[in-house]
UniProtKB/TrEMBL annotation:
This is Insulinase family protein. InterPro entries: Metalloenz_LuxS/M16 (IPR011249), MPP/UQCRC_Complex (IPR050361), Pept_M16_N (IPR011765), Pept_M16_Zn_BS (IPR001431), Peptidase_M16_C (IPR007863). Residues 1-18 form the signal peptide. Its cofactor is Zn(2+). Belongs to the peptidase M16 family. One of its GO terms (molecular function) is metal ion binding. Residues 52-192 form the Peptidase M16 N-terminal domain. Transmembrane segments: none annotated. Coiled coil: none annotated. The keyword Membrane does not apply. One of its GO terms (biological process) is proteolysis. The keyword Signal applies. Residues 203-385 form the Peptidase M16 C-terminal domain.
């Protein structure tokens, strides 16, 4: 679907692709809650099971509540690098053996790293689930590899940075935007790491990060598919239970200081078109029941983003793209994370238009809502589309597992999607207008503008098109 993805994807979706044309279910009908069985092993490991008997397949995911935000200056990129190294062996698995065995089971596997978490997943025939659980538990508990494997993989990660970021003008702009927007919080550092930090990275840096954060009391196993919950619990106890809990490093508060004025940067890169990104610091959503004022504001900001860019023909498309001020425009409320929230507006100026004109046009859309509000039909369409996305997400057992795992990482109830869907129905036009009025002043704004430069000879990945890699950086 183009716009309405599972709720935690919706939080920051700068949209692209074909539109969804499936009929949306009625909001009055309600979404059917997905049954989740949850267990806690003696070592603190959380086990979440989502039975779904529609197909003889199972998804197994291991989530770690650690990501790029747990790194320190000078060691950026460690969480992502360690994700790569989990594929390089254990006491019982030589480098590459894990992937070979998963393939032999008829399965697929990969991994991902974000600012907030690291995850590993496999999808296998359901009767192969205990074998893949044993494999994952082995590398989780006993990850080890020779230094030469680290040196080789580090070159892979450096090339990934070159292809996905340094050869991608818009990715470079977004990297610089976050580095400028945040001064104290670790969200300012790129997930893949600064190149100088990668060049200085050593094998023992990754081993130290592994010892610090890869503990069962900092992890959750999520299983979805054609499974029996009690049987999964038995297997989890068998394979993950022997791991010992460990004390985790103290997580120091790294509060972002108040921004005292607009920040502007220009990013010069070889590109065909200019690009503009505007970002404001906004409240993050921490709770889905007994919500605080900040939580309610974060929810209203999610709805505001959907009003701007949540469906075909939404405001940014009607007022900026169809009027030929922009070739593309999008919004995102990045309010679901362990760190501070942000609200982004982005766009590509149309031919003959300047970045300054597009910036003014993007800001005018917020000002229009702050002044005139949103109408009831517009708000109802957003809510209906949101519910449709929630229903469609359950068609995928991978989507079910991803939602449950990301909810756990953020310290939310496993079924936070259902609870948030209920909360969304209570958001009023006045709530949306209120956040539009309160959070979009200049003092909290950061603006990044891509200034196209001539291309010199052959170039890497095209702007906006990520190169394929073995693992994912979210």
């Amino acid at each position: 679907m183009k716009h309405f993805l599972p709720l935690f994807c919706l939080a920051f979706s700068l949209h692209a692709g074909a539109a969804d044309t499936s009929p949306a279910p009625s909001v009055d009908g309600g979404a059917t809650s997905q049954k989740v069985e949850q267990f806690t092993l003696d070592n603190g490991l959380q086990v979440l099971v989502l039975p779904d008997r529609r197909a003889p397949t199972a998804v197994h995911m291991l989530w770690l509540r650690t990501g790029a935000m747990d790194e320190v200056d000078g060691r950026s990129g460690l969480a992502h690098m360690l994700e790569h190294m989990l594929f390089k062996g254990s006491k019982a698995l030589p480098p590459g053996e894990f992937s070979r065995r998963v393939a032999a089971l008829g399965g697929q596997e990969n991994a991902f790293t974000s600012r907030d978490y690291t995850g590993y997943y496999q999808q296998v025939p359901a009767h192969r689930l205990p074998e893949v659980m044993q494999l994952e538990a082995e590398r989780f508990a006993h990850n080890q590899w020779p230094d030469e494997e680290f040196v080789k993989e580090l070159e892979v990660v450096k090339e990934e940075r070159r292809m996905r970021t340094e050869d991608n003008p818009r990715a470079m702009l977004m990297e610089q935007l976050y580095a400028t927007m945040f001064s104290a919080h670790p969200y300012r550092r790129p997930i893949v790491g600064w190149m100088s930090d990668l060049q200085a990275m050593r094998p023992d840096d990754a081993r130290s990060f592994y010892r610090d954060w890869y503990a069962p009391n900092n992890a959750a196993v999520v299983v979805a598919g054609d499974v029996d919950a009690q049987q999964v619990k038995t297997w989890a106890q068998q394979y993950y239970g022997p791991m010992a809990a460990r004390a985790l490093p103290e997580r120091k508060p790294r509060t972002e200081p108040q921004q005292l004025g607009i920040k502007r940067i220009s990013v010069k890169q070889p590109a065909e078109q200019a690009y503009v990104a505007l970002a404001w610091k906004v409240p993050a959503l921490r709770r889905v029941t007994d919500m605080t004022a900040d939580d309610k504001d974060a929810l209203a900001l999610l709805v505001l983003s959907a009003v701007l860019d949540g469906y075909d023909g939404a405001r940014l498309e009607r007022h900026l793209v169809q009027t030929r001020l922009a070739d593309s425009a999008g919004s995102g409320a990045d309010v679901l994370g362990r760190g501070p929230g942000a609200f982004l507006l982005i766009g590509t100026p149309a031919k003959g238009q300047t970045p300054a004109a597009l910036e003014a046009g993007l800001r005018a859309e917020i000002e229009r809502i702050a002044r005139d509000g949103v109408d009831a039909a517009e708000l109802q369409r957003v809510k209906t589309q949101w519910q449709a996305g929630q229903v469609y997400a359950r068609d995928s057992i991978m989507g079910q597992a991803q939602n449950a795992g990301s909810n756990w990482v953020l310290g939310l109830p496993v079924q936070a999607d259902d609870l948030l869907l209920e909360q969304v129905q209570s958001v009023t036009a006045a709530d949306v207008q209120s956040v539009a009025r309160r959070f979009f002043g200049e003092d909290g704004l950061t603006v990044a503008t891509l200034i196209p430069q001539p291309r010199a000879g052959a170039h890497g990945a095209a702007a906006g098109v990520p190169s394929p890699v073995s693992h994912e950086v979210k």
